[in-house]
């Protein structure tokens, strides 16, 4: 009996660890389920990225279908997706920016809001500005409420302010057609 325990327990532990690691190896991190699907957006009160006198609350995202795009000037993938998001805006899709600043964290260096605004202005002038408005998530507190792990991430919000879809990674033509387009059209016609 002791021989079974001596050899069996390590073997069982090894097999469990192998299954766990194999599952992680073959999983797609962009296909993580959000706990917010079907739930109202968490409450927020965020300032406009260019004018702190302008504040946005949840009611700014009701009455119309919206995309919330989490982005930052430091994010190379965000730069790649901006032209496509601008095309969506030109087609009548409401895109709202949630600016996710990495450099306001002392661990990454500190950047003033004026420097952030300059970088945003330059980037949007060069790559296109898809945003109906752009909220500043200084300290990334609201991003944490949304379960954001990085940028870019995009949320599809229905007319009542509920999260209907969450996508991790860039939003491009393929992703739009396979994940967003049909649901966006359905929500628009409701």
Brief summary:
By secondary structure, the protein is of the alpha/beta class.
User: What is the CATH architecture annotation of the largest domain?
Assistant: 3-Layer(aba) Sandwich
Query: Do you know the CATH topology of the largest domain?
Result: Glutaredoxin
Report, as a whole number of angstroms, the end-to-end distance.
66 Å
Which stretches are low in confidence, meaning pLDDT under 50 for 5 or more residues running?
none
Number of domains: 2
Strand tally is: 7
Widest sheet: strand ordering: 2-1-5-4-3-6-7
Task: Please explain how this structure is put together.
With 190 residues, this protein is of the alpha/beta class. It has two domains: 27 residues; 158 residues, Glutaredoxin (3-Layer(aba) Sandwich), CATH 3.40.30.10. The chain contains five helices and seven strands; from the N terminus they run αβββαβαβαββα. It has a seven-stranded mixed β-sheet, covered by helices on one side. β6 and β7 form a beta hairpin. The longest helix is centred in the N-terminal third of the chain and has 24 residues. The radius of gyration is 21 Å and the shape is globular.
């Amino acid at each position: 009996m002791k021989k079974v325990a001596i050899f069996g327990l390590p073997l069982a532990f090894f097999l469990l660890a192998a299954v766990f690691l194999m599952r992680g190896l073959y999983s797609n991190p962009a296909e993580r389920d959000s706990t917010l699907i079907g739930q109202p957006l968490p409450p927020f009160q965020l300032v406009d990225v260019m004018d702190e006198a302008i504040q946005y609350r949840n009611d700014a995202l009701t009455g119309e279908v919206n995309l919330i795009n989490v982005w930052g000037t430091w994010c190379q993938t965000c730069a790649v997706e901006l032209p496509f998001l601008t095309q969506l805006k030109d087609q009548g899709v409401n895109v709202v920016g949630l600016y996710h600043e990495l450099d306001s964290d002392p661990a990454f260096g500190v950047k003033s809001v004026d420097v952030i605004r300059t970088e945003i202005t330059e980037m949007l002038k060069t790559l296109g500005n898809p945003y109906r408005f752009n909220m500043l998530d200084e300290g990334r507190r609201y991003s944490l409420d949304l379960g954001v792990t990085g940028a870019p991430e995009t949320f599809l919000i229905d007319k009542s302010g509920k999260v209907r879809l969450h996508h991790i990674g860039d939003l491009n033509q393929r992703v739009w057609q396979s994940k967003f387009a049909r649901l966006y059209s359905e929500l628009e016609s409701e």
